[in-house]
Amino acid sequence: MTAASSKPETRIQGIGVSPGISWGLVEILGNALEEPEEISIAMSEVAGETNRLSTALVATREQITELQQEIIAEDSENSAAIFDAHLLLLEDATVLKEVKKITETQLKNIDWAYYSVVKRYIDSLRKIADPYLRERAVDIEDVAKRVLSNLRWSTHGTVPGQLSSHTNIVLAHDLTPSDTVSMDRSKVRGFATEVGSQTSHTAIMARSLNIPAVVALHKIPEACSTGDTAIIDGHHGVVILNPDPNTQLEYEALAEKERQVVSSLDTLKDSPTETADGVNVTLSANLEFLEELTGVAEKGAEGVGLYRTEFFYLSKEELRSEENQTANYREVAEATAPHGVIIRTLDIGGDKMCPELYSTPEPNPFLGWRGIRLSLDRPADFRIQLRSILQASAFGKVRIMFPFISTLEEIQRSKQHLESAKNELRDQKIAFDEEIEVGAMIEIPSAVMIADHIAKEVDFFSIGTNDLIQYTTAVDRINDRVAALYQPTHPAVIALIRETVDAAHRNNIWCGICGEAASDLRMTPIWVGLGVDELSVGSAQLLKIRHAISKLDSKGCGTFVEQLRAYGTAGEIERHCTTFAKDFYPDLFI
Ligand code: PEP
Ligand code: MG
Q1: What letters, b where the CB count within 10 A reaches 16 and e where it falls short, cover 387-411?
Q2: Atom from ligand 1 closest to the CA of residue 308
Q3: Residue 289 has pLDDT above 50, yes or no
Q4: Residue-wise burial string across 207-234, b where 16 or more C-beta atoms lie within 10 A, e elsewhere
Q5: Is the pTM of this model over 0.85?
Q6: Active site residue ranges
Q7: Judgement on whether residues 254 and 273 belong to the same structural domain of the protein
Q8: Domain total for the chain?
Q9: Domain's final residue, options 195, 226, 258
Q10: Which ligand is nearest to the CA of 513?
Q11: CB-CB contact of 181 with 71 (8 Å)
């Protein structure tokens, strides 16, 4: 580790989005989209200006393609796919038409015209509540910076973000994909950003590049300057600036331990997931983007336990056609064979807004028109999705799952729609799996309380803890201010999960968990003790969870969860389950 700085140690808490520990000297990337000078031009200069734009677009295309090839050569298909989207943005006809119109009618230089059009798009995307769509602003900004740079220099010049020779930790307001890949990554050991979330590009890229990252470090700009030293703790979402010698030693030891743990887990890739006393748990992975599919298989996942279809659906309107949805679901079905995939129908709403579907803003989006409510109210689109999922089921093991179920009628009506879609396909002689299994997401307390009724309608339950926690405790899952009250170990949450699993088993169906709590190593003994049949987790956590399960005894865990009934606070349950877990797999707690 680098020598200790004379500045005092500062710890800043953010969100860990790519696990791991690293340290080094900090370099701050200036990342703003700079406004070019506004210059008035003569009519005779218009043609020259539009030619300059064409040249800059060609240069930008070459640069993006080059980056893409470089990434493919490094075997990182996930990241490479992002540049396909950039190429499409670069050639967006509406944007280019508007830019040329400004130059032609207002007689302004093309740099300024381009900047003003693109800036307007970026600003309006940033106002959208849906975090995924907000992230698209980063893509547009990324492409725009390249185009403006090429316009400025009229050459294939380098892009912003060139790192000095010593850089180890990159700090930025946010990082765009090409900022990330155009860096000399041999110099990058960690990312720290002021903004961002689990779905931010920093998170996606860092995970795929296997570089520790922490985002949402709101206090970092004032606290840090280039040349400081920093430790990135991606496990706990902490950045430590100018660590003192004791902290340095502590983290060096942790990093060594982590290296040993990760390499020892590799041997579990092809192992079954079972407890020490031989009880099987299906361990599958969550999926948001097709690009993640390779990683899912490489980590030894037993299929995909939750495919969140809304992300691809919201990204582009043309992807919503029956043909494109079928192709998308088919790809996942084929890639996850023989285990298969649970495809969740659209869960738009809440923090995943689709502005064109809402004529007036939702007064309370998380309690409003979301998930299955939206699908049932929009039968034409629901039908297309159901037909697509059914068609994909001819190419692999596909299960279908309905989100945000709060009443029995919703599951019954959803199944009627599914039956109509099946009948249509039969009439058209289009193949699908006649035995396709149907599941309900249990993520609303009312669904837990009528779980016996719902269980009679479906083949499985999958518990969405992310929402179950927020609806049980009345804590908005995306509101920073009440984050401390968002408690996965709240006794009421555990009681509702216990009741859901019991109701499933009373009715001879299986029950999984697909919320983030499934990936929480401290809670694995609870899930084993309750008899949960499946855990669907983030692929980075997969082998750790498999290892944890292999160390646990199902009967011991059963006794342990019974003992937890004695506690009335989340803190007590958290302490007890952490202690229990650490007794059985201390090596996984870094
Ligand atoms: C959940 O609520 O736990 C879940 C898995 O679904 P989402 O996070 O997409 O709401
Ligand atoms: Mg949910």
Answers
A1: bbbbbbbbbbbbbbbbbbbbbbebb
A2: 9
A3: yes
A4: bbbebbbbbbbeebeebbeeebbbbbbb
A5: no
A6: 201, 514
A7: no
A8: 3
A9: 258
A10: 1
A11: yes
